[in-house]
Amino acid sequence: MSKNDPYAALRIKEFNIFLFVRFLLVFGWSMQFIVIEWQVYSITKDPLSLGIIGLMEIIPAFSMALFAGHIVDQKEKRNLLAICTAAFSLISLGLFLLTTESVLESWSTNYILYSIYGLVFFGGFLRSFFGPTIFSLVALLVPKKIYHNAATWSTSTWKTASVSGALFGGIFIGKIGVDKTLCLVFILVILAFIFTFLIKKKPILNTKIGEPMKESLKAGVKFVFQNKAILGVLTLDMIAVLFGGTVAILSVFAQDVLNVGPEGFGLLNASISMGSIVTMFLTTYIPINRNTGKKMLVSVFIFGLSIIGFGLSSIFWLSLLMLFISGAADGISMVIRQTILQLKTPDEMRGRVSSVNSMFVGSSNELGAFESGLAAKILGPVVAVVFGGTMTLITVVATGALNPTLRELDLTEEIEANENKE
Q1: Residues 106-153: pLDDT tens digits?
Q2: Has residue 3 been placed in a domain?
Q3: CB atoms within 10 A of CB 314
Q4: Contact assessment for residue 333 and residue 299, using Cβ atoms and an 8 Å cutoff
Q5: Which of 123, 185, 244, 338 sits at 20 to 30 Å (Cα–Cα) from 361?
Q6: What percent of the chain has pLDDT over 90?
Q7: How far, CA to CA in Å, does 362 sit from each of 32, 137, 182, 310?
Q8: What distance lies between CA 41 and its chain's CA centroid?
Q9: Phi and psi (nearest 5°) for 204?
Q10: Do the domain assignments include residue 201?
Q11: Are 272 and 330 in contact (CB under 8 A)?
């Protein structure tokens, strides 16, 4: 196999099946997310209600993260993925039923709203298991020497599914309605569940099966906080996502600022992911191993500038461009983060380290959604977005100055050493 083969991971059959399953799940989840965001804002006309959606997901996702990581490290990964997918199908089914015409006519608006929040809460609990399971399974499907390549393709698949789900979600809201779109999500999740069983069960690499939970969790947290490269990149991404995220209030911009309707709303969501996809595919040909830390800092700085540009724009095509650039910059930072985690995490600790990652970065998406919704209600959507982008820029400058380990990070030797094995 060529040393610089950009398609190395794609030559493994089970990894391709995994990518297909992940695509279906993320496509469905992305579509479901923007449909629910649209539905909730249409019901309430209150930006804070969009923030509450994020809050309802972050509470269980954050509080259960370490426990989920412990369970993932103790259990077989393929079956865990199947269980998570089955549970996801129940959420999709519930949301579909809540948006049917009979329920909308017979239930009060508040009851429907609170029921949606309840299912989102259940989804947050489920997500705390999804992340560590997928992260751990990737490492069991490909040899270590192509972890960085697998991480790039896995993240690219996730973003491709995100852009497709966001785009088609917005289109389907206008074409077939909210309820039928959520029914489609349910069908896709069931299909993903079926294909999961084409992946064989994998060995449990943790040598400490039955280890007391307290000791297991302590070891996982200790490892992350002692590894300055991992801690630095997680902290930077967490703060950038917390203040720089605009996804949660895009429906406000679509309906009240840009006046572009559901199709435009879908395009706004899609433009972010489209930018990420472009850069992620480029990184399969142009490695990010040299000057990795500097590339991370520059990409997040560009992300912050583009968020400010989006907040100040009142022109639809310019807003799309700013979001595309933000997605492109974010795509680079995501590939770098996933590569660092895959290369520097021991096999027996992947579930717990991924859980800490979800607490830092994953949960900051939902906390950022709440922050964005609250800031939009208090300051207005434009000022809220500009404020968030400005905080991102300040964070990058501070991190670059105070964290020389991250600033000087270079993965060249580590990647080359893995490629030369066997």
Answers
A1: 788 788 888 999 998 998 888 888 888 888 888 888 887 777 788 778
A2: no
A3: 11
A4: yes
A5: 185
A6: 15
A7: 18, 18, 23, 23
A8: 22
A9: -90, 115
A10: no
A11: yes
Query: Are residues 77 and 354 in contact, defined by beta-carbon separation less than 8 angstroms?
Result: no
Cα 210 to Cα 233: distance, rounded to the nearest angstrom: 31
Q: Are 54 and 368 in contact (CB under 8 A)?
A: yes
Tokens of 384: 């809220």
Q: Please choose, from the candidates 74, 416, 154, 371, the residue with its C-alpha nearest in 3D space to the C-alpha of residue 246.
A: 371
The whole-angstrom separation of Cα 37 and Cα 251 is 7
361's tokens: 């970065």
What is the spatial distance between Cα 113 and Cα 120, in angstroms, rounded to a whole number?
Answer: 11
**What whole-number distance in Å separates Cα of residue 154 and Cα of residue 25?**
13
Rounded Cα gap, residues 360 and 160, in angstroms: 23
Quick check: helix, strand or coil at residue 78?
helix
Q: What is the CATH number of the domain that holds 395?
A: 1.20.1250.20
60-64, 303-307, 334-338, 413-417: which range is least confident on average? Answer: 413-417
For the chain, the domain total comes to: 1
Residue 323 is part of which domain span?
9-196+210-419
Q: If you search the block for the tokens 């391709």, which residue do you land on?
A: 16
Does the pLDDT at position 295 exceed 70? yes
pTM of the model: 0.70
Contact (CB, 8 A) for 337 and 212: no
What's the pLDDT band for 49 if we cut at 50, 70, 90? confident
pLDDT reported for residue 271: 82
- Whether residue 202 is contained in a domain is answered as no
Average pLDDT along the chain: 80
Residue 2 lies in a domain: no
Give the integer Cα–Cα distance in Å for 306 and 63.
Answer: 32
Give the lowest-confidence range in 68-77, 252-261, 363-372: 363-372
CA distances from 248 to 21, 288, 331 (A): 26, 30, 18
If phi > 0 it is left, if psi is from -120 to 50 it is alpha, else beta; for residue 421 that is: beta
